[in-house]
Amino acid sequence: MSLADPAPWLLLVAGAHLGFQLTVDLVVYPALGEVGPEGWASAHAGHSRRITPVVALVYVPLVLVLGWVAVADPRDVGTWVALAGGLVSVGATAAVAAPIHGRLSSVDADEREVLLDRLGRADRVRTLGAVVCVVGALLLVG
């Protein structure tokens, strides 16, 4: 393998993405769920402000390297497994998680619970996508 081979880069960014997703799924969202109504607006605003650059640091390289792999190894099954997982995660983020976060900034406690539950389900889909992406990357480097 060389630095010009996208497979090890995909494994690196897919692994980082999986670590990020597990942290959000198992630590960040449960902690947000414990915030009471009186501190919600501040906690959610702080979360959104801090997580946005991390999302960019994880998702931008993931999308770029997935594109690189698709061009470099379009016939390898690992490419398609990784692409499927990556696209599930990116799609769930764009179609579900981001819009929910937009709504969470200004809802009452009852609606917040419903939205947090929906966000948790979307995040498990994103985490599953991240696992599948790592599997694809492992197939490519293996």
How would you characterize this protein structure?
The protein is built from 4 helices and no strands. It is mainly alpha-helical. It has one domain (6-141). Helix 2 packs antiparallel against helix 3 (77-104) and helix 3 packs antiparallel against helix 4. The longest helix has 33 residues, at 40-72. It is elongated. It starts with 5 loop residues before the first helix and ends with a helix. The model has no long low-confidence stretch (mean pLDDT 94). It comes from Nocardioides glacieisoli.
Q: Secondary-structure blueprint of this entry?
A:
Layout: H1 6-33, H2 40-72, H3 77-104, H4 109-141
Q: How does the major sheet shape up?
A: none
Number of strands: 0
Percent range for β-strand residues: under 5%
Q: Helices and strands: which structural class?
A: mainly alpha
Unreliable residue runs: none
- SSE string, helices as H and strands as E: HHHH
Number of contiguous helices: 4
Instruction: Using the CA coordinates, give the radius of gyration.
Output: 17 Å
Q: Please state the average pLDDT score.
A: 94
Give helix % range.
Answer: over 70%
Shape: elongated
> Which quaternary structure do these chains form?
single chain
Q: Tell me the domain tally.
A: 1
Distance between the termini: 11 Å
Protein name: DUF1772 domain-containing protein
Keywords: Membrane, Transmembrane, Transmembrane helix
